[in-house]
Fold this sequence. Notes:
Blueprint: E1 5-10, H1 20-25, E2 35-40, E3 55-60, E4 63-65, H2 67-79, E5 85-92, E6 101-109, E7 129-131, E8 137-139
Parallel strand pairs: 1-2, 1-3, 5-7, 5-8
Antiparallel strand pairs: 3-6, 4-8, 5-6
Amino acid sequence: MTPFLTVYMLDCGNAEKSDPERSLSGFDLLGEGSFETVCIHGCLDFSKIQIPTDWGIFIYSDEWMSPKLAQALPQFLEHGKDFDVLSLYKIRADEHPLKHLFQCPRIYRKHVRLRPLSLEPEIGYVKKHTLILDGFLYGE
């Protein structure tokens, strides 16, 4: 099977909170051979990344998908081809999670270019953008 998703694992910068295995665990539902992983350490100029597969997702090493989001992700990637960017709701793992609920773009079609030091897309590359409401991305 040819991979249709590239998972960019970004170093969170905190060895105590970093758990790459947990971060990647939700992608198992996509099926063997359906994604490839690229690990990135240090500061990165995101504008130089060219996604080699149909989709690219960026996840920090201290983040992980809720089971509901992990189950929904394959459907969004398969049927979401009308969109250029998929955003997720992220919840920070602390005692008041709803105070730290925010929307973050993380999944991009291969033609989308990112800003140099941001996971925000460059203006002009995005025609359609949507938010995945099935589950959450959790983070430390």
